[in-house]
Specification:
Length: 209
Amino acid sequence: MIDLYSFQRWPDIVKSFGRSGSYTPPWSAARKQSIAGDADWWNAISPAYRWMMGEMEHKGMPCPNPDAAPLWAWARWVDSKGRAHTRPDRRYPGFRNQYDGLELLHLRVDESRVLCTDFDQYHCVINNWPCAPLDAGAWPPAEYNRWLDEHWDDPPEKKRLQYRENVIVDPKRLPDRWIQACVWTITPADVVEIRAACGKKPDTMVSHG
């Protein structure tokens, strides 16, 4: 099992639990909301999300319905002193004001349902850049720059292999880096705890699955 933390609108999830016993984010709603806020951002990020969804299916996590989108969560985050944590601290400058109005869900799910990716490496997918191995950060700058020069014009097929090898991480052996996680669906049994949004009192039920 793996502990994940996801900022969500808990009332929407509760409604879905009541209707169907589970919650899967709808792609159409995410697209509509994102385009209303920043269409350019959506156009830039959606291909990377499509890649993520394809990799989930490749890992044996079939898409549950044609309008499904992954539920996004944190598995690891790193503070300003380089210490890795699981539960996000909204006092940390990197989180402050990012998730206003959203509850923080503590989820515990089986690793087989989760695709974990290195957040920094994932930016290569977003930007359609080549992606060096995870340990490239320890390479001498000249060696890293040489690798980039050699791979900058790699064809899409080669980049996809790089992403699969260098962005995805094993949920059972997470490195002490910023790690994001995606699952298709959650149920009440997956919810360990709900922390109220900043400035709000919790209006929730808590399930200990």
